[in-house]
Amino acid sequence: MSTETIAALATPVGTAALAVVRASGPDCARLAAAIFGSTPHPRIATYTDYRDTGGQRLDDVVVTYYAGPRSYTGEDILEISCHGNPFIAQVIVQDLLNRGCRAAEAGEFTRRAFLNGRMDLSQAEAVMDLIHARSERALAAANQQLRGSLGRHMQTLTEDLLLVLARVEAYIDFPDEELPPEDSCIVRDELTRVLRGTERLLATHRYGELLRDGIKTVIIGEPNAGKSSLLNRLVGHDRALVSPEPGTTRDFIEERLILGPHCLRLIDTAGLNAAPAALEKLGMAKTMERAAEADLFLWVVDATLPCPPLPTEVSARLTPTNTLVLLNKHDLLEDRLPVAQPTVTLPCLPVSAITGTGFDALTAAIIRHADAFRQDQGEDLIAINSRHADALRRAREGLESSLAKLTNNGPVELLASDLRSALDALGEIAGKIDNERMLDHLFKTFCIGK
Ligand SMILES: Nc1nc2c(ncn2[C@@H]2O[C@H](COP(=O)(O)OP(=O)(O)O)[C@@H](O)[C@H]2O)c(=O)[nH]1
Ligand SMILES: [Mg+2]
């Protein structure tokens, strides 16, 4: 338990209806008695005056006192809602500091919650994800992680691995130090199962990135196909320059867009031209760079014209699961069939960026494609972050190396040591570690007051 009481503004600096100042630590009850005349009943919002050390009334506030350990941090907490004037909030924080509190560091409230056993590390991270979630799916994943879904998956894996380790360690003290064949078989089966579980979780990293960063959706196609018009219609305003002159978009333009439950990073690019002029070449090089990182492609084609092939660097990346081909300018076709026949393998949709025809089907198709990135984890929507992925990769290494030793009848002791490092790596995800530096790094990314 900390001996220091920390205080900070928990809401953004700025003018609003309310601002919330928070304090956590052993001094809260005493502070409340000094500021409000008495310590409020736990968990009951009390309307009262905030008086500073000189007895001067700073604001009328609503204060809630939480008695530890039944609180966010596990310590005593004071939550003070004042009027949402940054100046009022600041004088209240300053008064708490004058009374002996220390200014909280970024993420320190949540760090204390973790250190006091109120949540595991994956849940602490989920608090951040929840605050920053940009889409319904990202919110759902953060909520599940906050409720311990990843922690539970990790616990099952860890327990399974512990059982294997126990079985292996039982042989360490025996003279020939080699597993008898029947045990070796069981260990192999169980290790393989743990390895599969580890890989299944690892496979959710991509989806996790997509949820946290947005799905990088790159609009490609030849000049004048209507790429910029498509972006404008999808974002609902004229963001990109549209012109009948080919080659208008030379740089790329990026806009965030919420589409159904997903967040997209929609990127408009310069057209891909078979015989580009000098300046166009620069634009095309940038398009290639964007294309290399794309999660999803929208390939826009002018349906009224024959369609030249894409450069092979780009076309090689297109698959039926990451690409939608849009036969644009459908309004100009009237009853004629499209002239463009860009592909036989990729899904095609008729659209018109000018009239909006086909955009409901397009939106539905993008959502379907985005949903397909999700790895099935049964009921749970697991989407791990880079820290988890790093730990899982190290666990996988340990598991693979131990399986190899098992195959070569290696010494039991070395096998056990591989398993222990795998176990340690798995343990890092929930935070069964005492690595100050890692915690500093992690909580530094939080906001002050969280
Ligand atoms: N009739 C019609 N014209 C379109 C459509 N989409 C784009 N255009 C026109 O095609 C020209 C090129 O459009 P633009 O969006 O700048 O193409 P980009 O070079 O691919 O970005 C402009 O004159 C647009 O108004 C469409 O669906 N129907
Ligand atoms: Mg353009």
Please describe the topology of this protein.
Elements: E1 6-9, E2 18-24, H1 28-36, E3 46-51, E4 57-66, E5 77-83, H2 86-98, E6 102-103, H3 108-115, H4 121-132, H5 136-146, H6 149-169, H7 181-202, H8 205-213, E7 215-221, H9 227-235, E8 253-259, E9 262-268, H10 278-293, E10 296-302, H11 312-315, E11 323-328, H12 330-333, E12 348-350, H13 359-371, H14 386-407, H15 412-430, H16 436-444
Parallel strand pairs: 1-6, 7-9, 7-10, 10-11, 11-12
Antiparallel strand pairs: 1-2, 2-5, 3-4, 4-5, 8-9
Bound molecules: guanosine-5'-diphosphate and magnesium ion.
Guanosine-5'-diphosphate binds at residues 221, 223-229, 242-244, 248-249, 271, 328-329, 331-332, 352-354.
Tags for this model:
450 residues, alpha/beta, Gyrase A, domain 2, Four Helix Bundle (Hemerythrin (Met), subunit A), Rossmann fold, 3 domains, six-stranded mixed beta sheet, 16 helices, 12 strands, binds guanosine-5'-diphosphate, binds magnesium ion
Give a written overview of the molecule.
By secondary structure, the chain is an alpha/beta fold. Helices cover 45% and strands 16% of the residues. Helix 7 (181-202) runs antiparallel to helix 14 (386-407). Strand 3 and strand 4 form a beta hairpin. The model has no long low-confidence stretch (mean pLDDT 90). The strands form 2 sheets. Strands 3-4-5-2-1-6 form a 6-stranded mixed sheet. The radius of gyration is 29 Å and the shape is flat. Guanosine-5'-diphosphate binds at residues 221, 223-229, 242-244, 248-249, 271, 328-329, 331-332, 352-354. Guanosine-5'-diphosphate (GDP) is lined by residues 221, 223-229, 242-244, 248-249, 271, 328-329, 331-332, 352-354.
